[in-house]
Design a protein that fits this description.
2 domains; seven-stranded mixed sheet; 373 residues; alpha/beta; Spore Coat Polysaccharide Biosynthesis Protein SpsA, Chain A
């Protein structure tokens, strides 16, 4: 029995290391993050930006201001904001900001459309008002990059391309925010690497664009079963219909989200992600299990062979740091090796805390709403 435990731990650690090596290989040698050509203003399509807002009085103006600074022809942009029954000053702030901006439109959402609920319901209703050829989706707590819209629509050159998704990072204010930024960057690097090997996962819900033909081909959000991760649901359905998707690592398609303020909110965010991930293909759950098993496996190996455990751990730390460093270079994000060491402790703690929180009978709460899922 002891020998079996030891061998199992070694196998888990070995496979984990192999996956990390493949991840780095993918990030280094698969280069398709640049559009085939830069589109002129005349060539750029009409677009509709869809923004769902619920209780966002702290962040909504930051988001809307960034939209006004987009490097995109003003006569080709429609901005639709859905106020999802906010209980704070979100509506008043939006109304004041857009009163002299005719390309902006605010819709107060009070009814449901078809199967859609929550954010999906807001986006479903905004889509019915959208006039653009492409729907660009971001969140009310996200500031879009200046070249985001121009760059992301430039990737719709391949036939049957449905969704193009960029990368979102967290504003690195304070140590907790910086850890979240590295975590998001690392995870999105894994998304991109996996897609390079044909293991597609999802789009990023606050940094994605969808061809309107693909959106309506699946009947819109009102035709999809409810999910707390509505972005994955849409992604999954368009791929089932034969449409293509693309994840991009490009510094011009970076959006910046506000950091989660405390551990409790972070746990609810992680729980929401894991609940939505139930529908992922089995190989993603194998991958999640593998990553989650690293700490127990290293402990088991350490008990029987401290030297071997230390070697595995140092290799893991080196590969993880290399992966993050490559991403920082690609995305032109400032580097701080002290933070990379801190991230190792942060990621181990958050992984353990997430496993415990997910198993507890606590209802998911997001945007001041509780979900029984």
């Amino acid at each position: 029995m002891i020998e079996i435990l030891f061998k199992t731990g070694v196998i888990i650690l070995s496979v984990y290391i192999i996956i990390q090596v493949l991840n780095i290989f993918s990030l280094l040698y698969f280069e398709n993050d640049q559009p085939e050509k830069e589109l002129s203003d005349d060539e750029l399509p009409n677009i509709s930006l869809l923004i769902a807002a619920r209780n966002e009085e702290v962040t909504i103006l930051r988001c809307l201001k960034s939209v006004t600074e987009l490097n995109y022809p003003k006569n080709k942009i429609q901005v639709l904001i859905g106020n999802d029954d906010s209980e704070d000053n979100t509506q008043k702030l939006i109304e004041k900001f857009i009163k002299d901006k005719p390309q902006f439109l605010l819709l107060n959402i009070s009814e449901t459309l078809g199967k859609a609920r929550g954010k999906a319901n807001v986006l479903a209703q905004l889509a019915h008002k959208a006039t653009g050829d492409f729907y660009l989706i971001t969140d009310a707590d996200t500031a879009v990059g200046k070249n985001w819209a121009r760059e992301i629509v430039s990737h719709f050159t391949e036939n049957k391309m449905a969704i193009v998704s960029g990368i979102t990072l967290v504003e690195d204010k304070g140590l907790f925010g910086r850890m979240q930024e590295i975590d998001w960057m690392y995870f999105m690097g894994l998304l991109r690497s996996s897609a390079n090997f044909g293991l597609n996962c999802t789009a990023v819900g606050n940094n994605m664009a969808i061809d309107k033909r693909a959106y309506w081909d699946v009947g819109g959000y009102e035709n999809l079963d409810f999910s707390v991760t509505e972005d994955y649901k849409l992604y999954k359905e368009v791929r089932k219909r034969g449409w293509k998707t693309k994840n991009i690592l490009n510094k011009n398609i970076i959006n910046k989200s506000v950091a989660i303020e405390n551990l409790k909110q972070l746990m609810h965010q992680r729980k929401r992600w894991l609940i939505g991930a139930r529908e992922l293909p089995f190989y993603w759950w194998v991958l999640f299990a593998l990553f989650g098993s690293f700490a127990p496996a290293i402990i088991v190996v350490f008990i029987f062979d401290m030297k071997l455990a230390l070697i595995f751990y140092l290799i893991k730390l080196a590969l993880q740091t290399t992966s993050i460093y490559i991403l920082q270079n690609k995305l032109n994000v400032r580097k701080n090796f002290d933070y990379l060491i801190s991230y190792e402790f942060y990621s181990n703690f958050i992984s353990l805390a997430t496993m415990i929180f997910f198993s507890l009978p606590i209802k998911l709460q997001w945007k001041n709403r509780k979900y029984s899922v």
